[in-house]
Design brief:
CATH architecture of the largest domain: Orthogonal Bundle
Radius of gyration: 28 Å
Number of strands: 5
Strand order of the largest sheet: 1-2-3
Number of helices: 14
Distance between the termini: 47 Å
Largest sheet: 3 strands, antiparallel
CATH topology of the largest domain: MetI-like fold
CATH class of the largest domain: Mainly Alpha
């Protein structure tokens, strides 16, 4: 009768060493590994990181003062950098041509002519208009620029001669921060109210549900306009900024609170919550130590997908003249100059901020999709 071969001691030791080398992977590590598999989410996250860094250091990135009105260079088309001059000679350092303002004798419109003889090489870390970083550090060093009397208008100028490239980055400070601050306020509402609804239920749940349904039954844009119209015109710009942020947060918390309530409603009957309840834990401890940590990843995902809606909301309100107002700059305020067909035909570069709005919204959607998949790392 044949007998099975016995495993050698050497093989047992090798298997034991391999078993010791195996390390347990935490849930956080699994979420990160799953997130890295989504290339679009990584690209969106990197793009948003660069956008927020550029917004924070807008004064450093912008070569010109965004509020400087230059009557000589009104509605100038984008003037790019050149590596080849009019003779075809190559320049290793890109340059910008000199510009001269003139009046067209036929249409009496102010035009800008290029002066081929004047070339201003691109320089880095140049001195220019003074600005402050986060209101703390004052400096006049800019990332790039050209020597005076040269001018660098990468995205052209508006009807008042202001540099659109510089105004785009200053506008990013307002438009991007409105989404973050608005979502932060929304998280406070939806986390507290949503978790309380899902855990307590009863009459409180029914009353809040009716309020949310009432808010969501109104068309969103007219409701935005109605609430934004209540903001007095004589308020300073910073107060209007926070008022618009609060308006967007008030109108966005309902949908997030409903999703949070659904997750908590499913978790409140889980074994660990039941064990905590039988251990005489208070409701506050159960909510803060058990329910909130288990829903936080999903809340963050929900918040990430809500930021684009708030950015679009601020853009729409500012575009219609009910949002951010001068001297503050936002993407919606920049796009408000493009309400007339004549402006679009003669100055199509005024729509440049719309490209940044579209790219930012798409990047947030990519990032939200990646976070949504990573929030459940055990799903297939």
């Amino acid at each position: 009768m044949a007998t099975l071969p016995k495993t050698s001691d050497h093989t047992d030791a090798r298997l034991a060493r391999k078993a010791d080398e195996v390390k347990l992977v935490s849930v956080r590590r699994l979420m990160w590994l799953r997130f890295k598999r989504n290339r679009l989410a990584l690209v969106g996250g990197i793009f948003l990181l660069l956008m927020y860094l550029a917004a924070i250091f807008a004064g450093f990135v912008a070569p010109n003062d965004p509020t400087l009105v230059n009557g000589q260079f009104v509605s100038v088309a984008p003037q790019g950098l050149h590596f080849f001059d009019e003779t075809g000679a190559f320049h290793p350092i890109p340059f910008a041509y000199g510009l001269k303002s003139a009046v067209d004798p036929a249409t009496f419109r102010r035009t800008v002519e290029i002066i081929p003889e004047e070339k201003y090489p691109l320089q880095f870390f140049v001195r220019g208009a003074e600005y402050s970083i986060l209101g703390l550090i004052k400096t006049d060093i800019h990332l790039f620029g050209v020597e005076e009397p040269g001018n660098l208008f990468l995205f052209g100028t508006d009807s008042q001669g202001r540099d659109i490239f510089s105004r785009v980055w200053y506008g990013a400070q307002v438009s991007l921060s409105v989404g973050l601050i608005g979502v932060f306020l929304t998280l406070l509402f939806c986390s507290i109210i949503g978790i309380a609804r899902g855990y307590l239920g009863g009459l409180f749940d029914d009353i809040v549900q009716r309020i949310i349904e009432l808010l969501m039954s109104f068309p969103q844009l007219p409701l935005w306009l109605a609430l934004a119209a209540l903001v007095p015109d004589n308020w300073p710009s910073d107060r209007i900024y926070f008022s618009i942020t609060i308006v967007l947060a008030i109108l966005s918390w309902g949908a997030l609170a409903r999703q949070t309530r659904s997750m908590v409603y499913a978790l409140r009957e889980a074994d660990f919550v039941t064990a905590a309840r039988y251990s005489n834990c208070s409701d506050w401890r159960i909510i803060t130590r058990h329910l909130l940590p288990n829903t936080m990843s999903h809340i963050i995902v929900i918040a990430t997908t809500a930021i684009p809606g708030m950015i679009l909301g601020e853009t729409a309100l500012s575009f219609l003249g009910l949002g951010i107002r001068s001297p503050l700059v936002s993407w919606g305020l920049l796009l408000s100059d493009a309400q007339h067909v004549r402006v679009l035909i003669q100055q199509p570069w005024i729509l440049t901020p719309a490209m940044f709005v579209i790219a930012t919204v798409i990047a947030f959607n990519f990032l939200g999709d990646g976070l949504r998949d990573a929030a459940d790392p055990f799903a297939k």
